[in-house]
UniProtKB/TrEMBL annotation:
The keyword Transmembrane helix does not apply. It comes from Gymnodraco acuticeps. CDD domains: Bbox2_TRIM16-like. One of its GO terms (molecular function) is zinc ion binding. Residues 166-200 form a coiled coil. InterPro entries: E3_ubiq-ligase_TRIM/RNF, TRIM8/14/16/25/29/45/65_CC, Znf_B-box, Znf_RING/FYVE/PHD. SUPFAM superfamilies: B-box zinc-binding domain. This is Tripartite motif-containing protein 29-like. It comes from the Eukaryota. Residues 47-60 have a biased composition (Basic residues). Pfam families: TRIM_CC (PF25600), zf-B_box (PF00643). Residues 47-101 are annotated as: Disordered. Keywords: Coiled coil, Metal-binding, Zinc, Zinc-finger. The keyword ATP-binding does not apply. The gene is LOC117542917.
Length: 262
């Protein structure tokens, strides 16, 4: 900030203040504010570069590995172009099946995938405006006015949001499974009630049929009894009348004889 302030102090007479990087002019003089996030990112990158240099120095001082410690790359195997970018892979055939070396190779390939295709730098910054990962040099190009955070912070935030979303989904699953269970219990209750109603209806119908059959039998019996009684009564009257008729015929015959004798 001190170097920019000195530059702008020299431009005081012009009453125009220019950015030493993009040459954009400002009027009046803007207030300088340190971007803490960007400063942290730059500091973090510096620390990583220092660590990388220390590792490289250690590697140079260490004895080189023998032939059994490297991989033979056959035709079409993994290789790096002069720009450091990954070429097409087909197969890897190590002399020694060392799991640690395989892990290191995979990590190297993963790092290669996170390299900026434009600047060949590791993309450790996330542009919130464009929703993409960028490298430190991309900030000087099309992303210089954008809102940025560290890729690690964005990953942590997105992981946190995904965790919350997953919890919400799991809660919804539990709630809907509970509702489904309640509906199943309701279906079971309806089926039990319907089965009970059918059984009771069948029992009622059976009892009603038995009652009707009994009533029918009783009525039939009563009708037959009444029939026998009426037939007997009528026959008795009929016999009485037949007897009276016979008596009257006898008297008529006697009277006829009496009249003839006179």
């Amino acid at each position: 900030m001190s170097c920019i302030n000195r530059r702008w102090d020299g431009e005081k007479q012009k009453k125009k203040y220019s950015c030493p990087h993009c040459r954009q002019t400002f009027k009046p003089r803007p207030a300088l504010v340190i971007s803490t996030e960007l400063a942290e990112l730059v500091e973090e990158l510096k620390k990583k570069k220092k660590k990388k240099k220390k590792k490289n120095k250690k590697k140079k001082t260490e004895p080189q590995a023998g032939p059994s410690d490297h991989f033979d790359a056959g035709p079409g195997d993994v290789g790096c172009s002069p720009t450091g970018r990954k070429r097409k892979t087909s197969s890897l055939q190590p002399h020694d099946e060392d799991p640690l070396k395989k892990t290191k190779l995979i990590e190297a390939l993963n790092v290669q995938e996170n390299m900026c295709s434009q600047h060949d730098k590791v993309m450790e910054i996330f542009c919130c405006t464009d929703q993409k990962c960028i490298c430190i040099l991309c900030l000087n190009d099309e992303h210089k006015q954008h809102y940025i955070v560290s890729a690690a912070a964005e990953f942590t935030e997105k992981k946190k949001k995904l965790g919350v979303s997953r919890q919400n989904i799991q809660q919804r699953i539990q709630n809907e499974e509970k509702i489904v269970k309640q509906f199943q219990q309701e279906v079971d209750a309806i089926n039990l009630s319907a089965d009970k109603a059918v059984r009771e209806s069948e029992l009622t119908c059976t009892e009603l049929v038995k009652l009707i059959e009994k009533r029918s039998s009783d009525v039939t019996q009563k009708i037959k009894s009444q029939q026998e009684y009426e037939v007997s009564r009528v026959k008795e009257i009929q016999e009485t009348l037949q007897k009276d008729i016979s008596d009257l015929r006898s008297k008529d015959t006697e009277l006829e004889k009496t009249l003839q004798n006179r």
